[in-house]
Amino acid sequence: MCVAIPYKVLKVRENSWAEVEVAGARQEVSLQLLPEVEVGDWVLVNLGFAITKIEEDEAKEIMHLYQEIAEAEGGSFIGPRVNERRDSNE
Question: Of 29, 42, 72, 79, which cross-links 59 as Cys (Cβ 3.0–4.6 Å)?
Answer without folding.
Answer: 42
